């Protein structure tokens, strides 16, 4: 069977994602959060809150996992749920004052951590990488048999399997 020319690129993409997850996840866990908890806190930071639907669209967390992560953050008094003023059937998730303080501390610390790995890349290089990744995502989304895109605000929901919360 002939070797497909895209296999080395896919292998490097997977290795890049694994390296990012290891680097980012270790720092997040050192702050006492799981990657999913950090994703929710970071997404809710500087917002008045959002519905579960919006939160699911803007994070990398699947719907089935989202409720459990919010439950655990609520038990830690970092988020609260309240009825939506616009739709009584919908719940709004927002940061509590303690959650907002955590966001202020953790988000800045995590940006500093990421800057240690990415800060030496030139703006033009970052732009080329972003463009290449966007092109790759668009190729997958346009491929025959692709599921409808759930891209919102430049982020696509990803299924996480087997992740401990």
Task: Explain the overall architecture.
It is a single chain. The chain is mostly helical. The chain is 58% helix and 7% strand. It has a three-stranded antiparallel β-sheet with strand order 1-3-2.
Write a brief caption for the model.
With 165 residues, the chain is mainly alpha-helical. The chain has helices spanning 7-30, 35-44, 52-58, 63-75, 97-118, 123-142; strands at residues 50-51, 79-83, 91-95. Strands 1-3-2 form a three-stranded antiparallel β-sheet.
Layout of strands and helices, then pairs:
Blueprint: H1 7-30, H2 35-44, E1 50-51, H3 52-58, H4 63-75, E2 79-83, E3 91-95, H5 97-118, H6 123-142
Helix pairs in contact: 1-5
Q: Using the 3D structure, state the CATH architecture of the domain at 20-120.
A: Orthogonal Bundle
CATH fold node name of the domain at 20-120: Arc Repressor Mutant, subunit A
Shape: globular
Strand content: 5-15%
